[in-house]
Amino acid sequence: MEPLHAEPQSKFIEFPYVCAPQRELMVELMSSIETRLGSDLHPCTLPPDVQYYENPNGSAHGSLHVRSGIPSSLINLILGSWIHCKLPSGGAVNITTLSAYLRSSTNAPNFVIEFIRTSPVSLVLILDLPPRKDLVLHPEYLKVFYEDTQLDRHRKHLQELPVVRPYFSSSLFVRAVFSPSSIMVSIEANDDEEERIDDIIRDHISPIAKEMLGTWFDVCASVEREVGGDESAELERRDRIIKNKTIEIDLGLSYPRLFGQEVADRVLGVLRDILNA
């Protein structure tokens, strides 16, 4: 289905190429962010040709949405993106990502959810509150953010479903970034079971994602924590490395191939400036 033309900023929140249950979930997550954090965020001020972009032949489309936190808030930035790419063999790949980063004035975890839909019957889900401190050296951090919140029960629940299998990123760096309770799963259905993936998103992934975002709001994004100058500097350095490595691994190679060098340079250049501000 081809989406109707819309203003660049509204393109992102339309999520025009994904299935209805995923679209409804992403809209709800964005609405929750607006409700809980809206007064702490600046409006999205990206150039129109960065908020929405496509390749010359129209086979790949993308949207980027960024809102930075006001100086007095704990929020560094909210970053959302989606990519839709038609495949030469037919079908399409859809990647939808929403990340929330905190400032170095707190050491609480960030939030990330990513859907990678490579076919109607194949989905990869990444959902986590990535830690920002070493969990071996700081066992109290593990207890507060992961044990007391019982985050691991969500991973266990999903992996009990027959079509769900663990997913292992090809990047060791990516695997090292996430928490022990991270949800990194692959969902594969039979060719005639497209609705099964949609049902899993609606009945299982959606309630888990909304609960985990709520946990992040309550335990991470709204609680002041004492962070010393040395720790703050280390957090800022660590966050910057992860953000830039994410661009390098996820986007640096794929964007020129999908969108052409000119579009890739424009979008990634703006994104790098924002992440390193």
UniProtKB/TrEMBL annotation:
GO terms for molecular function: red chlorophyll catabolite reductase activity. Pfam families: RCC_reductase. GO terms for biological process: chlorophyll catabolic process. GO terms for cellular component: chloroplast. PANTHER family: RED CHLOROPHYLL CATABOLITE REDUCTASE, CHLOROPLASTIC. This is Red chlorophyll catabolite reductase.
